[in-house]
Amino acid sequence: MTVDDSIRRKFTVRFGPAVGEWLDALPALVESLCARWNLTVEHAIAVGGTSRVFRCRREDGSRAFLKLTPDREVATTELTALRAWRRSPHMVDVLVADVDAGALLLPAIAPGTMIEDEPELIPFEVLRSLREDVDLPAGLPHLSDRVRFMAELTVRRAPELESLTGKGIELTEGGVQGLVHGDLHGRNVLRGPHGLVAIDPRPTIGDLTFDLVDWALAPGVATREELERRITRITAGLSYVDGERLLAWCSAVAVIIAATLRPGAQRDFLVELAQR
For residue range 181-229, what is the model confidence (pLDDT) as tens digits? Predict the structure, then answer.
């Protein structure tokens, strides 16, 4: 098992240079967990810069995903949220965990197709369930902490956008407060055997409107008219959503999304939106 340079770069941006030691020790950690949990690694999954994920076969022949992060808090908060959403049919379950090792074992979802290629789809059943089928947990950070961190990460990724970061803190206290997924977009919603299923939360407590930004600013949205059309659809489908608050959140988060995009019409629109 090797860790290529692109993965090292992503993890270094997210966690700093010290993460190199964790990446070097990762093969031994995977081997140890596979022995404990009776797993056989099939292959690694290409993901973001927070976790490494391996598709595994369990002793009974079923498949599962071994998710590993160098940050114990990331594993702990995700486990807390998954347990809080255990009543929801639209959130992935957790099979077993070792937060000291930064490890979660999650069941495979079939067919597991991401909905990122369906930009017109807004997963209302997921959004409703994550608000309603939840036991609000204690011990999670506040949304304001995540907004600050995302602003810091944006500066690391795109220093030229630093002057546009820092917005949104004032929005975290208002709106409908609850358990926020924190990273709910088309790559983190999969087609399951009985409907759509969300994965990979970055959970906090705060304004639930935050989880709607990626659906308002879906891939391809590059004009104010298209954004307003999406917001109108969302407010029609979710009675608790205030359109003006969602627009304000879109303006606050636009620069964070822009920092992850290549030059183009949507990135230009998001930078313009962030300047308002």
Answer: 999 999 999 999 999 999 999 999 999 999 999 999 999 999 999 999 9
Here the tokens at position 37 are 């949990």
Query: String of b and e for 175-214 (b: at least 16 CB within 10 Å)?
Result: beebbbbbbbbbbbbbbbeeebbbbbbbbbbbbbbbbbbb
Please report the domains of the chain, with CATH numbers, ordered by start residue. 5-108 (3.30.200.20), 114-274 (3.90.1200.10)
Return d(Cα 208, Cα 143) in angstroms, integer. 10
Answer whether 168's CB lies under 8 Å from 147's CB: yes
C-alpha count within 13 angstroms, C-beta hemisphere, residue 55: 13
Reference 108, options 55, 157, 152; nearest CA is 55
- Residues 103/22, Cβ–Cβ less than 8 Å: no
Peptide bond into 111 cis (omega under 30): yes
Rounded Cα gap, residues 50 and 70, in angstroms: 8
Q: How many residues does the chain have?
A: 276
State which H helix or E strand residue 13 sits in. Answer: helix 5-15
